[in-house]
Amino acid sequence: MALLRGVNVGGITVRSAELKSVFEALGFTGVRTVLASGNVVFTAEGRPAAIKRTIEAALEERFGYDAWIVLVDRERLVQVIDGFPFDATREGWHPYVLFASDEAALDDIQSSAGELDAADDVIARGGDVLYWHNRRDVGISSPFAKIVAKARFRTVTTNRNLRTLQKLL
């Protein structure tokens, strides 16, 4: 699965049908897009690092933006979903998972967060992801959301709602 960063926001429009055609043109099979937020399920053979570079180059060429993706295989996605450490059904809260191309970015985000107000945001590390539970009323105005949105993290991280990840399966 490929999780694209920064599409359909900030002037970068990537339509699902066009996205699917890029992946099919690369020779991937079983290609399907999920929602309109840059999620692609597909089958490919080869080394993940090479697949990642190939996809990013194709996206840059086709859509004209500095593409960055996270690849997650089905087994790891199941582990990430099953590992969500908070009550994902808690009323008034959003369950998120942050992915990064470099775990050091997650370390930076976590250390930059300091002591969070648990009434608004809670986070927990889950290996190569950072779990985040955010109070809906605060949303992107929360101190933690502002850290994640900093320019230095935008190019190396992407986050997904837990429900979106469940749809990917």
Automatic annotation (TrEMBL):
Lineage, highest ranks first: Bacteria, Bacillati, Actinomycetota, Actinomycetes, Micrococcales
Domain of life: Bacteria
Protein's name in the database: DUF1697 domain-containing protein
SUPFAM superfamilies to which the protein is assigned, alphabetical: SP0830-like
InterPro entries reported in the protein's UniProt record: DUF1697
Pfam family, one: DUF1697
